[in-house]
């Protein structure tokens, strides 16, 4: 007897196969049968005639570790068809992987959750960030051991990026920790040092580390950033294709031309990597240098009209939602938008300035090309506020997957099938999650039922916190986590330990 049978479905198996008509039998949280099940005995039968079923979406690039205690996290994900997430990306996750996963075990997350070992906070246990320097030879060995321990505690891989103390690591230190990832059989996930002017060299650096250690390397949110540098995109594609021939190489991408990060990202690392940015802003000479650095960003990436600020701690803001930096400067009575940015940052106790969306950071045609590549993995890079998902955030936190699926479904069923693969089995394979991301006998019954006639992403920069249409129902281990328009958070879920 089956616990549940889903009937009358068009099945997208997550492997890129041609869709087929059939039923799915679920028993003990797993897919027990796929095919024509007729009148087979079951405890519950759901007739989904005319609907499409696909595996639960696996979002391998998130920052949901920052809001693990948010009661609405599971429902937020389920409303998008997401059943598995991986946090700790870009080198800015939890300091103690073991304690973090133990805490996650105690929560009813309503999803499957994994974490990466984040290089920055781990290295800061050995080399205090405030010292603002590279590690010595002896310290590099200690950092290796700390990373090794985090991987042994269940981290699914090692992440690194340009944020905070990560940027203090030299290539020798990174070579050491990538050896730890290689020895553990886990990937090295890289937010490159630069994605604009020096994006090609930053990509080559990641490749050098992989070549010397044999580690699997994964490039986060692949892009060329800034109009001034878009002409380098074809060279980046050539570089990636060359790398794929000799390395175990992967990448993820989100389907938007705008990025999101801290407002302080505009400031050169030399002024902030040691955590002393607020101190420097208080010094007139150093403040002038920082303002000059922000103007350098305007010239290199985009100007203040295209930077949408979400700083809730700024009382002068009119209304809620994002506001571009140029208009916010006017409201605050600050003539120079760079000085306005500095004032917003220094009012933030964390010295980050809150989140900001950077419109037109990428060329839309480049984004579409990356999303269309057969080797792409679609991921949201979703970033929450500290107290839960921000109402004023990037639309990728709500619309990434529906956006890609709806666009593909309008082209052809084969394209739609490939889009499904890019967010299910391809994502699972990158982390060795062989029982996830596919509709096959023996796999976890994490499933999403879609109504293709209704499927549409609804989140926009002007109104980002809008969930997609067309997600009919979502199952985690054969149990509903989304039904009748409501996300359910009573399911325990699973902590994934590598």
Structural write-up:
- With 498 residues, the protein is an alpha/beta fold.
- It folds into 2 domains: 56-258 and 360-434, Metal-dependent hydrolases (TIM Barrel); 265-354, no CATH class.
- It contains 15 helices and 23 strands.
- It has helices at residues 73-78, 97-105, 119-123, 137-152, 171-184, 199-213, 233-246, 277-281, 284-300, 325-332, 337-346, 364-372, 396-409, 413-422, 425-430, and strands at 2-11, 20-27, 30-35, 42-47, 52-55, 57-59, 82-87, 112-115, 117-118, 158-160, 188-190, 217-219, 249-253, 259-262, 307-309, 323-324, 355-358, 376-378, 447-450, 471-476, 479-483, 486-487, 494-495.
- The strands form 4 sheets. Strands 1, 2, 3, 4, 5, 19, 20, 21 and 22 form a 9-stranded mixed beta sheet that branches.
- α4 packs parallel to α5 (171-184), α9 crosses α11 and α10 crosses α11 (337-346).
């Amino acid at each position: 007897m089956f616990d549940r049978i889903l009937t009358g479905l068009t099945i997208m198996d997550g492997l890129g196969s041609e869709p087929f008509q059939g039923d799915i039998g679920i028993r003990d949280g797993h897919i027990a049968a796929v095919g024509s099940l007729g009148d087979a005995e079951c405890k519950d039968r759901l007739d989904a005639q005319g609907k499409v079923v696909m595996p639960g979406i696996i979002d391998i690039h998130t920052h949901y570790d920052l809001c693990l205690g948010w009661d609405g996290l599971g429902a937020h994900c389920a409303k998008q068809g997401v059943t598995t997430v991986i946090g700790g990306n870009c080198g800015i996750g939890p300091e103690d992987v073991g304690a973090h996963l133990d805490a996650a075990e105690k929560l009813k997350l309503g999803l499957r959750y994994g974490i990466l070992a984040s290089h920055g906070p781990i290295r800061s246990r050995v080399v205090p960030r405030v010292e603002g320097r590279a590690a010595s030879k002896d310290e590099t060995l200690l950092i290796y051991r700390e990373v090794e321990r985090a991987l042994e505690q269940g981290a699914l891989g090692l992440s690194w990026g340009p944020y905070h103390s990560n940027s203090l690591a030299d290539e020798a230190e990174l070579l050491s920790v990538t050896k730890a990832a290689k020895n553990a059989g886990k990937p090295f996930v890289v937010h490159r040092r630069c994605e604009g002017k020096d994006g090609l060299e930053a990509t080559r650096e990641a490749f050098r580390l992989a070549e010397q250690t044999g580690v699997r390397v994964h490039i986060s949110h692949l892009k060329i950033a800034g109009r001034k540098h878009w002409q380098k995109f074809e060279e980046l594609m050539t570089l990636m294709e060359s790398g794929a021939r000799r390395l175990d190489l992967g990448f993820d991408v989100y389907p938007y031309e705008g990025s999101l990060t801290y407002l302080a990202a505009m400031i050169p690392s030399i002024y902030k990597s040691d955590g002393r940015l607020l101190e420097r802003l208080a010094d007139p000479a150093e403040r002038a240098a920082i303002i000059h650095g922000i103007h350098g960003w305007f010239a290199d990436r985009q100007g203040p009209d295209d930077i949408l600020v979400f700083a809730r701690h700024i009382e002068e803001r009119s209304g809620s939602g994002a506001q571009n930096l140029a208009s916010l400067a006017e409201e605050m009575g600050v003539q120079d938008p760079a000085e306005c940015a500095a004032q917003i940052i220094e009012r933030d106790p964390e010295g980050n300035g809150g989140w900001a969306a950077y419109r037109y950071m990428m060329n839309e045609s480049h984004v579409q090309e990356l999303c269309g590549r057969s080797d792409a993995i679609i991921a949201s890079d979703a970033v929450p506020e500290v107290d839960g998902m921000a109402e004023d955030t990037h639309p990728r936190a709500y619309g990434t997957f529906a956006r890609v699926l709806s666009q593909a479904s309008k082209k052809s069923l084969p394209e739609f099938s490939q889009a499904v693969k890019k967010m299910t089995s391809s994502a699972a394979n990158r982390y060795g999650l062989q029982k996830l991301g596919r509709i096959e006998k023996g796999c976890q019954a994490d499933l999403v039922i879609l109504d293709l006639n209704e499927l549409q992403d609804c989140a926009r920069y002007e109104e980002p916190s809008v969930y997609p249409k067309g997600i009919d129902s979502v199952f985690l281990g054969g149990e509903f986590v989304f039904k009748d328009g409501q996300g359910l958070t009573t399911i325990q879920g699973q902590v994934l330990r590598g």
